[in-house]
Amino acid sequence: LKAKYLDLIGAASDEAALEDLRVQALGKKGEISLQMRELGKMSPEQRQVAGPALNALKDEINAALAAKKMALADAALDERLKSEWMDVTLPGRRRGAGSVHPISQVTEELIAIFADMGFAVAEGPQIESDWYNFDALNIPGHHPARAEMDTFYTHRKEGDNRPPHVLRTHTSPVQIRSMEAGGAPIRVICPGRVYRADYDQTHTPMFNQIEGLAIDKDVSMANLKWVLESALAAFFGVPVATRFRANHFPFTEPSAEIDIQCSWVDGQVRVGEGDSWLEVLGSGMVHPKVLAAAGVDPDQWQGFAFGVGIDRLAMLKYGIPDLRAFFESDLRWLRHYGFSA
Ligand code: PHE
């Protein structure tokens, strides 16, 4: 009996099997329990021999069960340790942190710089009516500027009689909208996306401009020059000389294209030094017809407007050669220029 149970216990593969064996041997109707019951029927002499033997057997089986139970638990723990181990010497896993896109960053910088000079931020829609994008800005239907701007036109279904809309080709329509809304005097900058059908290293079909508008009783070109030179110095961190070149925009009179001072070193441009010039801005005194179209009396008010490419400024400030990279969401590129962790 002893050998039988010790063998069975040794072979048991889990706790449930052990419990079965315990019941089979020592349970109420277990093999050993039944034999214990027989003791009462024996003579005292027989009992004196059989009693201690049975008790010893019972103890031995209990001990064997307990030992096997421990062994099974140890094995289970070993198994877990083998499958659930962790190498604490492995380097941690990097988590990329998001960051502000360079264009957004530069836009915020410019907003802060102009805010210091009293300019509020104004915005307008990117899908703009013909009227705001062209006519109100003194660009009538036949004007060559419409063709020059590589305009994206929106498609209208047969029977749709709403006025034609375009993807705005510049932020200048926001001049009209903000004068309509606030009248004069006014001082606003209008950052935002603009669209032209053009694509190469320095042109993308969507890009960003910031428009400036200052209207008051006696605002002049001299004020424009001061505002721009102050803003450029704040933006680039060095004084930047400007050069005004006569030019034509339908919505300003007189108009000037503005170049900034720079030098070229090994194909890299450096702003604020040297004797080269880079065209970055369009500007001028707001045309009386534009004021009138926006409901501002040109006999009482005058002022300047300018428009500058935000992407261009970002390229210049950070030495980025290809404009298209701004819109490719390549994390390696963002990291290279320090824009992402
Ligand atoms: N809207 C012009 C452009 O996109 C820039 C400009 C703005 C010129 C304001 C004069 C005044 O090229």
Automatic annotation (TrEMBL):
It comes from the Bacteria. It catalyses: tRNA(Phe) + L-phenylalanine + ATP = L-phenylalanyl-tRNA(Phe) + AMP + diphosphate + H(+). GO terms for molecular function: ATP binding; magnesium ion binding; phenylalanine-tRNA ligase activity; tRNA binding. Pfam families: Phe_tRNA-synt_N, tRNA-synt_2d. Mg(2+) binds at E253. One of its GO terms (cellular component) is cytoplasm. Binds 2 magnesium ions per tetramer. One of its GO terms (biological process) is phenylalanyl-tRNA aminoacylation. The keyword Ribosomal protein does not apply. Residues 113-341 form the Aminoacyl-transfer RNA synthetases class-II family profile domain. Keywords: Aminoacyl-tRNA synthetase, ATP-binding, Cytoplasm, Ligase, Magnesium, Metal-binding, Nucleotide-binding, Protein biosynthesis. Its cofactor is Mg(2+). InterPro entries: aa-tRNA-synth_II (IPR006195), aa-tRNA-synth_II/BPL/LPL (IPR045864), Phe-tRNA-synth_IIc_asu (IPR004529), Phe-tRNA_ligase_II_N (IPR004188), Phe_tRNA_ligase_alpha1_bac (IPR022911), Phenylalanyl-tRNA_Synthase (IPR002319), tRNA-bd_arm (IPR010978). It is found in: Cytoplasm. Its EC number is 6.1.1.20. NCBIfam families: pheS. Belongs to the class-II aminoacyl-tRNA synthetase family. Phe-tRNA synthetase alpha subunit type 1 subfamily. Tetramer of two alpha and two beta subunits. This is Phenylalanine--tRNA ligase alpha subunit. It comes from Flavimaricola marinus.
